[in-house]
Amino acid sequence: MPDTLPTGMPQARAGGLPDREQLRAFIENATGRIGKREISREFGLGPEHKQALRQMLREMALDGMLAPAGARRFRVSDRLPESMVVQVTGTDSDGDPIARPVQWDGDGSAPVIFMHPELRGRAALAPGERVVARLRRVGPGRYEGRTLRRLTDAPMEVVGLFRTLDETDPMASAPARYRPAGTLTPADRRAKAQWVIPVGEDADSPDNEIVIATPLPQSGPGLHPARIIERLGPQGDARTISMIAVAMLGIPHVFPTEALAQARAARGVTAQGRTDLRDMPLVTIDGADARDFDDAVYAEPDGEGFRITVAIADVAWYVRPGSALDREAHLRGNSVYFPDRVIPMLPEDLSNGWCSLRPGEDRGCIFVNMDVAADGAISNARFGRGIMRSAARLTYEQVQAARDGAPDATVAALPDGLLDSLFGAWRCLSTARAQRGTLDLDLPERQVRLNDHGQIAAIQPRIRLDSHRLVEEFMIAANVAAARCLEGRHLPCLYRIHAPPTPERLESLRRTLDTMGLKLPPVGSLRAADLDHILQQVRDTDQAGLVNELILRAQNQAEYSPEPVGHFGLSLAAYAHFTSPIRRYADLLTHRALLVATGLEPGPAPSHDELEEAGLAITRTERRAAQAERETLERYAATWLQARVGTVMDAHISSLSRFGIFTVLDATGTSALLPMSALPEDQWHHDEKTQTLHARDTTMVFRPGQALRVRIEEACAIRGTVLLALPDTPPSHRRRRT
């Protein structure tokens, strides 16, 4: 920590609160992560400045000038922290390792990290290895890194596609003693290393098998030998695809024996000490393929408004702090959802059993009763521990059909007016949402449908219905009530926070929108409603899809923290996850805190520091799950497109760069690259100001949002990448076996 402000920084008056630019400059130039203690020491602040400083830091986080750096510390939002987890992706021309951040949510490509060689006597860093590195910025998008700690003692693993040698492979002509059994193509698209599997190290794997391998001692420059230690399945089997992400990202998927035993020993609850809700016709509303039902809803008219009840499975009754179940749930952080399977946070004896609100069966629950006024205002929220019996397991499609006048037998058997009351309460809550001015992105979500043989039957959009929005608004209301309850009792709360976009991202968004004739207000006054106003302007136009994508990319990722930063997208000052404790550990922590707050269980509630640590951990697992789900969808799409190489499809441009055009395929909703080499021969110029790519000698111009007809040129299933060409260009002679 420097004793004085670095040269060139504006000086604050001793003992006075710095302004925002002075504070940002200090945090940016100081060494390490900076918190209120370091700021107070630097600027000579006393106890009388504590509240004002806290408010300034909160506002700067809301404005995107700062980003949380853990343990009540901050960093400037567009810089990597002083140390972080990085993954080695290959080597430079001198043989030194190159790495990338494991977690990256910034604009554009992740920064490149040039790692220093390891100390004498230590093994060199191998491609794919993860380490905690100390970083030093050496230029835009470039850092130097030094290893602080290797993360595992176990051998590093490489997930990839094993191919036996054929006559076209250059290594097939090598002398027999140097000829490997085959090659390994890493599934990680960032990996640059080439792996070979020596004879006798292939675990009898057949050609075209997805495998996990562990490195062997390097036998020569540029060669990375490895031993196959596990076979995941043939590449052609769609059910193998999700296991690639599970293996690559280290997602725990086998429960310890002790945790399974605790789940099997669980039993149902009794009414003793609980509010009896079994006569209340609570219903669950979920997807048709859902197997666990952790939330149920009910509403009844109350004057001009409604009285609503949201009941959530009482997971805290079964998963006690410090138990084997609790340790495993904390490790996993959340469930992970794939087209062919779910990697659950809790064993199925709980997630699909005692913690699932099955119809007609007694279940323990944590509930909240709320009064909703005609304008959507929520009051008189009361939490309790209950016993309930779901009146029906409904699907979104059932509820929507009933609202549209076609109820089935299950819905018709419900009490008269129940669905009318649910939709009436939803309309009230939607009124309040509109008045707040929230960001309501309309991004088509794609789902992969498999047939009975595990083959891809279709990739199609997931339809969003009013019944989805109904459940969403009820859950948001319950989550807000949970945060307010804990705040009202002055107890720490693990908030779901969403900071506003950074000034840098907003400026990039503004430049792009300007080229489309769309205007944003100044950064300092921007609200979620302003971005939503842009969305309303382009609704039902050809620009709608692109503008939604652009605004999404400008957003910060939501995270968990005990600091009340607020939720920008929902325009809420306090928001906590409470409604899905079967699949999110954050919700389980909120349940435990509420039980203490309402006197239903003895204390103490989790401390601020405990929630800080937990928030960082489960934010990481949530992003790991999102990455796994996204990459798996891309691999499914590439697998589906492999059989359609040469087919011409519709796409639209999502962004432009100096090396190609990024598009989104309309059929699959996935990204694909039209490389510069696939464009007609000409001199192409990328104009960042106008966000266009144009040719010098022709009138051909490409711009974001533009519709294209493209030909599928290559699809690499193992990496989930797709290369395109224009329909009137000759097919490439390149050939990829992957």
UniProtKB/TrEMBL annotation:
Transmembrane stretches, start-end: none
Keyword Cell cycle: no
InterPro entries per record: NA-bd_OB-fold (IPR012340), RNase_II/R (IPR001900), RNase_II/R_CS (IPR022966), RNase_II/RNase_R (IPR004476), RNase_R (IPR011805), RNR_Ribonuclease (IPR050180), S1_domain (IPR003029)
Catalyses which reaction(s): Exonucleolytic cleavage in the 3'- to 5'-direction to yield nucleoside 5'-phosphates
Keyword Calcium in annotation: no
Domain of life: Bacteria
Keywords, alphabetical: Cytoplasm, Exonuclease, Hydrolase, Nuclease, RNA-binding
First-listed, main subcellular location of the protein, grouped into a coarse class: cytoplasm
Record's subcellular location: Cytoplasm
S1 motif domain boundaries: 646-727
Pfam families for the chain: RNB (PF00773), S1 (PF00575)
EC number: 3.1.13.1
Family membership: Belongs to the RNR ribonuclease family. RNase R subfamily.
Function noted in UniProt: 3'-5' exoribonuclease that releases 5'-nucleoside monophosphates and is involved in maturation of structured RNAs.
Listed HAMAP family: RNase_R
Annotated protein name in UniProt: Ribonuclease R
The species this protein was found in: Komagataeibacter oboediens
Lineage: Bacteria, Pseudomonadati, Pseudomonadota, Alphaproteobacteria, Acetobacterales
